[in-house]
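Can you please make up a protein's amino acid sequence together with its fold in token form to help me picture the idea?
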Amino acid sequence: MNNELLDALNILEKEKNIPKETLIEAIENSLLQACKNHFGKSDNIRVEIDKETCEFHVWQMKNIVEVCEDPVTEISLADAKMHDSKYEVGDVFSTEVKSKEFGRIATQNAKNVILQKIREEERKVLFDEYYGKEHDIVTGVVQRYNGNNISINLGKVDAILTENEQIKGEHFKPTERIKVYVIEVKSTNKGPRILVSRTHPELVKRLFESEVTEVHEGIVEIKNIAREAGSRTKIAVYSNDPDVDPVGACVGLNGARVNAIVNELRGEKIDIINWNENAAMLIENALSPAKVISVIADADEKTAKVVVPDYQLSLAIGKEGQNARLAARLTGFKIDIKSETQAREAGDFMDYENDYEDEYYEDGYYDEDGNFVPYSDEDYEEGEYYEEGEYSEDGEYPENEGEKQENEE
């Protein structure tokens, strides 16, 4: 019997991941419960179980008195001396209780205690296992549709993909394998309740971590993500190693890495841009693929004025404003986009030029003898000197920053 019990405990430990010590504790509690049901109380019961062999003994401790009034907790001196003549009044007499003597109800209650403990421990083990996967991605198998929700099997438990966390227009077939992001794991009486998502921005981040080695190792850092699930995602990346191109690492050879993620997201477009601490440069990058003429960013107000070429205005704004909206989310700035013509008509573009004019008086160049020559008023009036990102008076956009260029006119 002890060998059978030991084998059963080893199997439960292996299959359910429940420690054998916990199961032995459950057996002790069940024996105490059985004694309480059989004798009416268990305060004077001691259970001993050998953890190696699972051999167990149940002892009932009785106080030795002259006249026994409670046979459950007391024994007369005369009866005690029949076992050992050395006993005296006030000593404690131990007698072994045979579990075979327990009635049917006591045995059933003991069994229920063990089963209840096993169920509790199984739920706890499952909760601990999946709680460690909270805020991470897991692969699941589509089970069935429960109304508008989808049941996803994660191996040992089912997760819930609610309607709000589903990508609009995305449909799955039973037994289909998909990747989901674990939002929350709750402990309930019926086991862990796991909520997963296909729309969360962190899903994209975790997919890049699993697909791009440099991101997983921390060489390339994903600074921010803006996502409209099922349509387009913009991510800003930064490299902690000057020899590693963050965008190239995420794209992969011939786009292999990013295409694997796009396929997992069922064709969702992904724009990967370089992160820049300079707000204006970051906003310019965020509006990719549109080309930008100028950006004036107010870091305190978190606002920015952007000027783009006339033919790039619709591209910068995007379909239904999506490109501009995602760029605003990615950068944290409220972005006002105008075409070059609109900016000049509104006077915003001229303001942009004037903002930089004061800076020119503090600038200059070095002549052939190494002497510093400040820019003169005449130089500025002719529009020969300008910085990258600023239009000259003839409307040409320079390519070399701070470099003196001849006015073709």
Q: What stands out?
A: Residues 350-368, 375-409 have pLDDT under 50 and may be disordered. The chain has 14 helices and 17 strands.
